[in-house]
Amino acid sequence: MVLCVSESMASVTASSAFEALRETVYAEVATLISQNESCPHYLIELFRQLQMLSTDFLRQRGLFAIQDIVARYFAKVWRSADMLT
Q1: What is the CA radius of gyration of the chain?
Q2: Is the entire prediction scored with pTM above 0.70?
Q3: How many of the other CB atoms lie within 10 Å of CB of 46?
Q4: DSSP label at 55?
Q5: What are the extents of the domains in the chain?
Q6: Burial of 38 (0-12, 13-18, 19+ CB in 10 A)
Q7: Rounded to an integer, what distance in angstroms lies between the CA atom of residue 57 and that of residue 65?
Q8: How many other β-carbons are positioned within 10 Å of the β-carbon of residue 69?
């Protein structure tokens, strides 16, 4: 019985957290769509792949992979800019 109460409370807490961030989440998704309107196939594939990240572990690994790609890209850009100056 305690397990059901704990699960229920965890569900309510997660739901409340999402409600608090709902506007931010929708605004970020809208921005992503707007920035990539010329690439609808990319957006479709991106959202399909993101839907496959069905566990916290996979979502965290996916986020780390994206952060790593972005960090490497900007490090390369900054190195190139330093070479030009």
Answers
A1: 19
A2: no
A3: 13
A4: S
A5: 1-52, 55-85
A6: exposed
A7: 12
A8: 10
Task: Check residue 83 and report its DSSP letter.
Answer: H
Interatomic CA distance for residues 26 and 69, integer angstroms:
24
Predicted confidence (pLDDT) per residue in 5-44, tens digit: 455 556 667 788 888 899 999 999 999 999 999 999 999 9
With 0-12 / 13-18 / 19 or more C-beta atoms within 10 angstroms meaning exposed / middle / buried, residue 80 is exposed
Cα(23)–Cα(26) distance, rounded to whole angstroms?
5
Q: Given the structure tokens 């800019």, which residue do they identify?
A: 81
Q: Are 15 and 22 in contact (CB under 8 A)?
A: no
Residue pair 53/62 in contact (Cβ under 8 Å)? The answer is yes
- Sequence length of the chain is 85
| Residue 11 CB coordination number (10 Å) | 10
